[in-house]
Amino acid sequence: MNIRCPECKTRYRVDDEKISGKTVYARCARCQTRFAIKKNRHGQKPPCSDAPQTLFCNRCGQKSDRRFAVNGKPVCEKCYKTLSTRKREKPVSEYCMPRKSQNQKNSSNRNGSGGIFGMIGKMFSNDMAIDLGTANTLVYIRKKGIVLNEASVVALRTDARYEKSVIAVGCEAKEMMGKTPHNITAVRPMRDGVIADFETTGIMLQHFIRKARRGRNIFKPRMLIAIPSGITPVEKRAVREAAEQAGARSVSLIEEPMAAAIGADLPVADPICNMVVDIGGGTTEVATISLAGVVSGKSVKIAGDRMDDAIMRYIRKKYNFIIGERTAEFVKMTIGNACPDPRNPESMEVKGWNIISGEPKIFSVNALEIREAIGEQLDAIVEAVKIVLDRTPQELTANVIDRGILLTGGGALLKRLDRFLMEKSGLPVTVADDPLSTIVLGSGKAMISPDIFSRVVVS
Ligand SMILES: Nc1ncnc2c1ncn2[C@@H]1O[C@H](COP(=O)(O)OP(=O)(O)OP(=O)(O)O)[C@@H](O)[C@H]1O
């Protein structure tokens, strides 16, 4: 029989024989809600299963028989609408829109227009642009701006039966990182710019979307999601599926460097070359953009997270101290500097665990040490910039020499990174006004401009 979670509406198919009593309880694998499954009133089999009868769905026109039932009522095999057993006077073709070819279906899905219902939905839906980042997730809603900015973290509790339930999502969950008892884990479901844990990403996305919409709208939103430029088709499909499960009506994707360029108001559609370096938590995206397309791009999995790891390793090796991920990030944000002053470097006190004495202690680190720790990551970013410049046609490189590089993403906030990049590349470097929001702002702008939208979405 087919069942549906009352909370998140996820559908499951359950073998009738596994339901031993009249009522059994199940827990939804997605939202962890516990709910009752009742056996069909007439016994083990759904009603009418002995007498299959062809019915047509009023909503989608799908031909179904009464074998497919939920709670004893026949439902459509395709859209799960309850089927009426009343006899129809009209043939199904008079009730339904003509069936579309697969290509038409795909294109209407991408554009979010789906006949009359699509048009009504378009008028009332909260279309969303989402920067589903390794470190932070931001949501932009048409006409409202950025409505959500949360850490991409989920805290899960494991009970005595090894069942997991969500206890916090976002910044609240981030606060718990490194401070949890053994039965609670605060996890980051995104790693290196892609989905590392599909189920938890789905839960997180669903939570953020619900929070961003605040139940204002009954229509499902269309979503434009920013993705790293180097991700594989399988990783793209995972993003689409996670968004669809979280309630998207249609999902479109945009590459992060393109979104960043639009967000920073660069003339992406002109025959001028714009160079963008986006340093996020998991990936650094470098791209040259002209005529609304990426001329040359490179995505490297070296960004803020790798810098934090490098700081942790450095402190352990040099001082025999263990510090957590969050402390390493705090040190990077506070005294991290790509070009520190060697005569008067900033310093700060850090609390850590001494592995020799086995005691917690306070020690001091300075900006020169942190610079040494993250040197490898900074060099890798410069290398990516050089590769992209090398692959860009010379006519366009001339534009980059004049216009310079736009630095964005949270990593752009590392002190004097612009100066470091300028010295290494010999090109002018500008930091975006709000580096943490540039991608979601750009995605939002692309979403509301049909001309740009059709040119920048990726398949
Ligand atoms: N002031 C700062 N100095 C240095 N790094 C910073 C600063 N502020 C934020 N960051 C870093 O920026 C990163 C987060 O940036 P951002 O939100 O753009 O990434 P993301 O979009 O989540 O990741 P990705 O694009 O890789 O998926 C984190 O690694 C964070 O430590």
Textual characterization of the structure:
This protein is of the alpha+beta class and 459 residues long. It has 4 domains: 1-39, no CATH class; 49-95, no CATH class; 120-257, ATPase, nucleotide binding domain (Nucleotidyltransferase, domain 5); 265-432, Nucleotidyltransferase, domain 5. Helices cover 34% and strands 27% of the residues. It is built from 15 helices and 27 strands. The strands form 9 sheets. It has a 6-stranded mixed β-sheet, with helices on both faces. It has a 5-stranded mixed β-sheet with strand order 21-20-19-25-26, with helices on both faces. The protein has a 3-stranded antiparallel β-sheet with strand order 13-12-14. A hairpin with a 6-residue loop joins strand 1 and strand 2 (11-13). It is flat, with a radius of gyration of 26 Å. Mean pLDDT is 83; it is low at 42-52 and 87-114. Adenosine-5'-triphosphate binds at residues 131, 133-136, 193, 256, 280-283, 303-305, 329, 332-333, 336, 409-411, 413-414, 436.
